[in-house]
UniProtKB/TrEMBL annotation:
InterPro entries: MZT1 (IPR022214). It is found in: Cytoplasm, Cytoskeleton, Microtubule organizing center, Spindle pole body. It comes from the Eukaryota. PANTHER family: MITOTIC-SPINDLE ORGANIZING PROTEIN 1. This is Mitotic-spindle organizing protein 1.
């Protein structure tokens, strides 16, 4: 298997594991959103700041629904 395929497989497995953890913790993040979050963190975004933004966006979304 070429190295690029190995990297894709490893990335997919990582997202699979994170998705399982996310489901167990009831984070309500789908695979697509998890992938974006992982990418942002890998590119230097502070994980705590990202979590804060996600929670604030959810709160705003809930407020708009009411």
């Amino acid at each position: 298997m070429p190295p690029a395929d190995d990297k894709r497989k490893a990335a997919r497995e990582t997202i699979d594991i994170l998705n399982e953890i996310s489901t167990l913790l009831n984070t309500q993040l789908d695979r697509h959103t998890l992938s974006y979050c992982v990418s942002l963190i890998e590119n230097g975004v502070n994980p705590e700041a990202l979590a804060t933004v996600v929670m604030e966006l959810r709160a705003q979304n809930e407020a708009q629904k009411q």
